[in-house]
Amino acid sequence: MAGSTLASPSAEAITRAPASPGRETWRRFRRHRLALASVGVLAVLVGGVLLGGLLWPVAIDDIDFAAQLQGPSWDHPFGTDDLGQDLLARMIYGGRISLAVGFAAMAVASVIGVVVGALAGMSRRFLDPALMWLTDLFLSLPQLPLLLLVIYLFRDSLKAVFGSQGGVFLMIVAVIGGLRWMPVARLVRAQFLTLREKEFVEAARSQGATNGHLVRRHILPNALGPVIVAASIEVSSAIIAESTLSFLGLGFPPDIPTWGRLLFDAKDHLDVAPHWALFPGGAIFLTVLSINFIGDGLRDALDPRRVL
């Protein structure tokens, strides 16, 4: 009786199914309290800009000179600008564009970086040094002056083809994403150089697997963890880059109130209307900070060497 009682826990432990990789990753991620809180903050920000128009249906271009430069109130929770326009409505509208630019530029940078890094990591001849030379060349370029130059040269032509808002959006996403792929490429290359020599890859190669099959089924899935972490950081970098361009007056047109454009418009009224810059600046700060903390949490959760 006692022997069967003592043996039952061990038998239960043996028959217990191991946790899935996704559940184990979530368990590790939950231990990072700042990352978990940042997910909530980012969800509130994203939900606010996506659904805020339904809860606050105020036009972004309604002018009321009697209410210009007013502070936060019940009628205008975030105050008004120099034309009496409601800042909450303009922040909701502009937040969609700022976040869309951040995630779209991250996707462009991640795709280019993964392709370049995979080609370099799988190459055993001249392609690897050539691609790494190209990566080092892009890393050495001054990004902000190059951004300004490209936008100055191609902004008008893209506006004529895709419209004022669509042309600027495509240009900013392409330029920011095209200048932010280098860290992802170096990271993917390092992962590929390590993984291609592993035993499970050699076993698949010995069974006749092609390089394309090895990349799709064995190497790339095992290299996605660091890529996801790097991509989360690229979102915040893209948001800051778009805000910088809009603050310099080279981003979206003046009638499109992105968060960076709101900061640019508020710079001449900081002494009389600090709320005009405080709210968009706080939104940028919270978005970037939460994404950075989420990246830290993903790094810890996806690192197999950490035991939490």
Automatic annotation (TrEMBL):
Keywords: Cell membrane, Membrane, Transmembrane, Transmembrane helix, Transport
Keyword Nucleotidyltransferase attached: no
Subcellular location: Cell membrane
CDD domains, sorted: TM_PBP2
Membrane topology: Multi-pass membrane protein
InterPro entries assigned: BP-dependent_transpt_permease (IPR050366), MetI-like (IPR000515), MetI-like_sf (IPR035906), OppC_N (IPR025966)
Signal peptide coordinates: none
Domain ABC transmembrane type-1 stretches: 95-295
Membrane spanning residue stretches: 34-56, 97-119, 131-154, 160-179, 223-252, 272-295
SUPFAM superfamilies documented for this protein: MetI-like (SSF161098)
Family to which this protein belongs: Belongs to the binding-protein-dependent transport system permease family.
Protein name per Swiss-Prot or TrEMBL: ABC transporter permease
Natural source organism: Methylobacterium komagatae
